[in-house]
Design brief:
- There is one protein chain.
- The chain is α+β, with helices and mostly antiparallel strands and about 140 residues long.
- It has a single domain, classed as Zn peptidases (Aminopeptidase, 3-Layer(aba) Sandwich).
- Helices cover about 35% and strands about 20% of the residues.
- The chain contains four helices and four strands, in the order H-H-E-E-E-H-E-H.
- The chain has a four-stranded mixed sheet, with helices on one face.
- It is globular and about 50 Å long.
- It starts with a helix and ends with a helix.
Length: about 140
């Protein structure tokens, strides 16, 4: 199975958008809105504000007798980004230095792919906030 080049381009755009606008801890309104909007565009059932800013998207394929859940973190780190590429952080002192932007973009693309697999199951995709609660609690 090969991935659609259009989907790969979209996932790249999503990752760069998330990288450009990082948010930390539970303060993720732009990130949560962006992710919920994409899921809604795909016709995914969306539940918001799980654990404050978390999101659960559900795609039902078939009778729902089986289910699988996958998760990605949405939060960034309190780090100043020194990169100069176009999609560098626009939020001073906040950066996706841990890959959560990429994880979220890949998980956003999953329902598009999943629909075409023929796998009859319920797919739950979870986007959580504040994975690094200790780092958030200890920040100056």
């Amino acid at each position: 199975m090969s991935l659609d080049q259009n989907l790969i381009s979209r996932m790249t755009e999503w990752r760069q958008h998330l990288h450009r606008f990082p948010e930390c801890g539970f303060d993720l309104p732009l990130t949560a809105d962006f992710i919920a909007e994409r899921l809604t565009e795909f016709g995914i059932e969306v539940t918001r504000n799980i654990g404050q800013q978390g999101i659960v998207g559900v795609l039902k394929c078939g009778d729902g007798a089986n289910s699988i859940g996958l998760r990605a973190d949405m939060d960034a780190l309190f780090i100043h980004e020194e990169n100069q590429f176009e999609h560098r952080s626009r939020h001073d002192g906040q950066m996706h230095a841990c890959g959560h932007d990429g994880h979220s973009a890949m998980l956003l693309g999953l329902p598009v792919i999943w629909r075409n697999t023929g796998i009859l199951t319920v797919l739950s995709i979870l986007f959580s906030s504040r994975m690094k609660s200790m780092a958030v609690a200890l920040r100056p």
